[in-house]
Automatic annotation (TrEMBL), chains A, B:
SMART domains: HTH_MARR. Coiled coil: none annotated. The keyword Repeat does not apply. It comes from Desulfobacter latus. The keyword Transcription applies. Pfam families: MarR (PF01047). This is MarR family transcriptional regulator. The lineage of its organism: Bacteria, Pseudomonadati, Thermodesulfobacteriota, Desulfobacteria, Desulfobacterales. Residues 1-136 form the HTH marR-type domain.
DNA sequence: AAACGTTAGTTTTAATTGAACTAATATAAA
DNA sequence: TTTATATTAGTTCAATTAAAACTAACGTTT
């Protein structure tokens, strides 16, 4: 049956993605982070001007908990505090370069897959590939 | 640049996989399980005749801990005990249907993607798709 | 007696919290 | 303008809670 062959192709494509994922996450030293911490980074990444209070609300925990959580993330070099210029009580929680890369790992991995595709296929194959995927 | 289009295609294909993943994991009620428990299921799935002692060795914990771990998995309906026929001291740890499905979610999701591909593309497109993926 | 798993109770560890605290700001009366 | 008062943002710290794993003792089967 044809499905067997399709399955092999799907599996191969996914494996390619997984390998890129693994390679990048290794390079970023991502294995030191817990699943929760990864989740935190994503929330911080997509929230403008994240403060401790805002973060506490989002996570539905108290502010001391946020202090604890953020301190751990700072120790891991994935987050930094940035004091607000006009109100010095306020500290923004910002991702470091490392933190941002980790938060956007799926995107980076996809980029890598794109590079592989662009490097291996010729122009006509690329057009065909894009056209076929578009139909799904 | 062509990469933009390739990226869109890669992203779309991955999204398709993620959606299938999500749909199945929802249907299986997988969100009740912790990450560790998912890990346990995978270990149980790939180990023949898993006993409490063997599981304790693999996880490098004591047998009472395994008892507790397994009891929790039983409560979640993903695992069951099966007494050995010829030696009634021994209990095997077996996945339930639900547990097996959860352990093999990535496979199931890939199957679903395959079905979608088989349903949408015609024979020629499928051949092309397979041929292109093979080159990666 | 030895092997397999369970039960009961303890230890350990991490996460969370409430309460008190510092620092910065806002408000408004003197 | 200055000064007193209250409020807000985040921190520190001690205490609690909850989960995970352990030891020791036990029942059952071989």
């Amino acid at each position: 049956m044809k499905k067997k062959l399709i399955y092999e192709a799907v599996k191969k494509f996914n494996s390619l993605g997984h390998e890129c994922n693994l390679e990048i996450s290794d390079k970023l030293g991502m294995s030191e982070l817990q699943v929760n911490q990864l989740h935190y980074l994503k929330i911080i990444d997509r929230t403008d001007d994240m403060t401790f209070g805002k973060f506490a609300e989002i996570l539905k925990v108290t502010k001391p908990s946020v202090t604890e959580i953020v301190n751990k993330l700072i120790k891991l070099n994935v987050v930094k505090k940035k004091q607000c210029t006009w109100d010095k009580r306020i500290f923004y929680i910002k991702l470091t370069e490392k933190g941002r890369n980790i938060a956007r790992l799926p995107f980076l991995a996809e980029q890598k897959v794109v590079d592989i595709i662009a490097g291996v296929l010729d122009d006509e194959e690329i057009d065909t590939f894009i056209k076929i995927i578009k139909k799904l």
